[in-house]
C-alpha cells in the first residue's frame, strides 16, 4: 500500500521508465517504479483529467478545462515529449475527447473516443482530419469505457446499457491466447475467516478478530505494576574466543560443537 496526496489518483499507466498517475486535479505525475517517488509532474488541464496514454517517448492527455465557473471538454490533446520532459504542440481534434489509446501498428496512431460514440483516428504529431471520424452504433446513450486488445487488432466499447461493441480491422482478428490472469484486490479478511466450533473446549480465543479500539485493554498493566525485563544476549563461549582468528576487524572461529543445533541457552 502507498498513500498518495490529495485529491487522489484516477488513472494509472506504466512504462519501462515510469509509473504514471493521473490526478483528478488535471495533473499527471511520473513516479519511480520502485520507490513511487514523484520525479516529474505535468499540469495538463485546469479542470480535471479524463484519460491519458503512453507510447514510446510520447504522453498524450485529454481532459476538462475551467471555463465560466464550470468545466468544459477541451478539444486540444496535450502532447508531452518524455525525452526532454516538456510539452510539444497540442493536437486539436474535431470531437469532444473522453477516452484515448495508442494503436501502435505501422504508425503510432491515436484512437480518440467521445462519450456520444464518435471515434477519430489521427497521428499524435500530425493534424486531425474530419474524414477520419467514425460512429459507434450504441445501444445506450453514452460510452462508459474503451480499450484496445493486446494485438492492437480489436477495439472494445462499453456503453451505458451494459453492451460491449467489438470492432476489428479484419474478420480474422488475432487475440492474445496467453493473457495473464487479472490481478484483483485481496478480499476482506473478515469475510474469509474459518468457522469456529464453540463446542470444542480447546478452541483458542486468539482466533477471534478483535477490532482496534481506544479503550484500555485488560493486558495494559500500569507502569507501577510492571518492570521491563529485556532478554540479555548469552555470553560467547570461551572456546570460541580462544580459537578465534581476526582478519581486519572480523573474527573467525571453528564451531566448538558444545551445543546441539538451534539450541539456545535459557
TrEMBL record:
Supply one GO BP term: nuclear-transcribed mRNA poly(A) tail shortening
Superkingdom of origin organism: Eukaryota
Residue span of the signal peptide, if any? none
Question: Where would I find the PAN2-PAN3 deadenylation complex catalytic subunit PAN2 N-terminal domain in this sequence?
Answer: 1-168
Name of the protein this chain belongs to: PAN2 protein
Gene Ontology CC? P-body; PAN complex
Question: Which species does the entry assign this protein to?
Answer: Crypturellus undulatus
Q: Which InterPro entries match?
A: PAN2-PAN3_catalytic_subunit, PAN2_N, WD40/YVTN_repeat-like_dom_sf, WD40_repeat_dom_sf
Q: What molecular functions are annotated in GO for this chain?
A: poly(A)-specific ribonuclease activity
Amino acid at each position: 500500500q502507498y498513500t498518495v496526496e490529495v485529491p487522489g489518483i484516477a488513472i494509472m499507466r506504466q512504462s519501462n521508465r515510469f509509473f504514471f498517475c493521473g490526478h483528478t486535479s488535471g495533473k499527471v505525475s511520473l513516479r519511480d517504479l520502485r520507490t513511487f517517488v514523484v520525479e516529474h509532474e505535468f499540469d495538463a488541464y485546469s479542470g480535471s483529467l479524463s484519460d491519458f496514454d503512453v507510447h514510446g517517448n510520447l504522453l498524450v492527455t485529454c481532459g476538462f478545462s475551467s471555463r465560466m465557473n464550470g468545466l468544459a471538454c477541451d478539444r486540444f490533446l496535450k502532447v508531452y515529449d518524455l525525452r526532454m520532459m516538456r510539452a510539444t504542440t497540442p493536437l486539436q481534434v474535431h470531437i469532444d475527447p473522453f477516452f484515448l489509446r495508442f494503436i501502435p501498428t505501422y504508425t503510432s496512431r491515436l484512437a480518440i473516443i467521445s462519450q456520444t460514440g464518435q471515434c477519430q483516428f489521427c497521428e499524435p504529431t500530425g493534424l486531425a482530419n474530419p474524414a477520419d471520424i467514425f460512429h459507434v452504433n450504441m445501444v445506450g446513450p453514452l460510452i462508459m469505457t474503451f480499450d484496445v486488445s493486446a494485438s492492437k487488432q480489436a477495439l472494445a466499447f462499453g456503453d451505458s446499457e451494459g453492451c460491449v461493441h467489438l470492432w476489428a480491422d479484419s474478420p480474422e482478428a488475432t487475440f492474445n491466447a496467453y493473457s495473464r490472469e487479472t490481478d484483483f484486490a485481496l478480499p476482506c479478511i473478515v469475510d474469509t475467516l474459518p468457522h469456529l466450533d464453540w463446542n470444542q473446549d480447546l478452541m483458542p480465543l486468539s482466533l477471534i478478530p478483535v477490532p482496534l479500539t481506544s479503550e484500555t485493554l485488560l493486558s495494559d498493566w500500569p507502569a507501577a505494576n510492571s518492570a521491563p525485563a529485556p532478554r540479555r544476549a548469552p555470553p560467547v563461549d570461551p572456546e570460541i574466543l580462544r580459537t578465534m582468528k581476526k582478519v581486519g576487524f572480523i573474527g573467525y572461529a571453528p564451531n566448538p560443537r558444545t551445543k546441539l543445533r538451534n539450541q539456545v541457552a535459557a
